[in-house]
Amino acid sequence: MKTGTISIVGVGSVGAAIAYASMIRGLVRRLVLVDKDSTKARGEALDLGHCSPFVPAVEVEAGPLEAIAGSDVVVVTAGAKQKPGQSRLELAAENVNLFRTLIPQIAAYAPDARLLIVSNPVDVLTYAALRFSGLPPRQVVGSGTVLDTARFRHLIARRIKVSPGNVHAHIVGEHGDSEIGLFSSAMVGGVPLLEFKVDGHHSLTEAERAEIFDATRRAAGEIIAAKGATNWAIGLTTARILEAYLRDENAVLTVSRLLENYAGSGDVCMSVPSIVARDGVGPALSVALSEAEAAGLRRSAAAIRDVITRVGLE
Ligand SMILES: NC(=O)c1ccc[n+]([C@@H]2O[C@H](COP(=O)([O-])OP(=O)(O)OC[C@H]3O[C@@H](n4cnc5c(N)ncnc54)[C@H](O)[C@@H]3O)[C@@H](O)[C@H]2O)c1
């Protein structure tokens, strides 16, 4: 297995979960933690470092932003979370402003690193990171709907009583309200999901599919209402994307990436199934879309572009 140096900029609840998941999966040889609250970053580095007897060899250190030099991947989770009463647009404007100064510094210290954006709204911030870094599009992705896709597969799998590993189904578009669940191309062990017989007799009804998709889309809100933030699943999701880079996997993942012309949408970062390997994000797959899915994807792209324009990214 290939390992390397991963830096995490922003070591709040999400950054710490990413660090922990990456260590447990034995992905990383050196982990660099950076936070504007340097005391907190130092505390997390000390705490995580004490896991070392139980995980494959890893060095964990906290440092200033300069310490990211030489990283294979820089993960960015720095930024505000949506506050009660704050609109998504206001959050976008706040975090785009943060990226305006942070991203050029990251690109200057680690010009060869892949950038993996996790901060929200992730599609707009991935676009901002591309603009502010000047890095080639294949080097900059967002975690996008990899997490939503995991939730979708989990919920389908539970309903049809098949292991999630055997459910191939994607959430595409925005990581947010306008995302789309691709039921028409979903497969279960080689059988189209729309034809799959649950308990050997009936296929999922439209109402059951709507319920699964709705639960997927509402999942983040439900968790935030219950515990204030989401962190464990995004931690492992991000570790999964890091794994695809570090093991040069050519894995198909729904990362958020620049799309120039995809099913009628362009100049936007959003999620479609894409090949991820050591040198970054490769081709987007041309998934067959139903008419409703294609229209949904165009609407999702338009929703992201609207925010990009309104926060002055053009
Ligand atoms: N993409 C996803 O699926 C997903 C899932 C969950 C959370 N998120 C997003 O991840 C982000 C972080 O969430 P969290 O729960 O960890 O928040 P948090 O408040 O716990 O952590 C954010 C951290 O960023 C640090 N920070 C702020 N500005 C910085 C800077 N300039 N340099 C270095 N560090 C800086 C803060 O000190 C803090 O420790 C939020 O934007 C949240 O919405 C994304």
Strand runs, count: 14
Helix and strand run: EHEHEEHEHEHEEEHHEEEEEH
**Main beta sheet:** 6 strands, parallel
> Roughly how much helix do the residues carry, as a percent range?
40-55%
Cα radius of gyration in angstroms: 19 Å
Per DSSP, what share of the residues sits in E-state strands of 2 or more residues? 15-25%
Average predicted confidence as pLDDT? 95
Q: Indicate the low-confidence ranges by residue numbers.
A: none
The end-to-end span amounts to: 41 Å
Q: What count of helical segments does DSSP give?
A: 8
Trace the largest sheet across and list its strands: 3-2-1-4-5-6
Structure class? alpha/beta
Query: Which geometry do the CA atoms define?
Result: globular
The distinct bound ligands, ions and cofactors come out as:
nicotinamide-adenine-dinucleotide
Structure, briefly:
With 314 residues, the chain is α/β, with parallel strands linked by helices. It has helices at 13-24, 38-49, 88-109, 122-133, 146-160, 206-227, 232-246, 291-310, and strands spanning 5-9, 30-34, 59-62, 73-76, 114-117, 140-142, 167-172, 180-188, 191-192, 251-253, 256-259, 268-271, 274-277, 280-284.
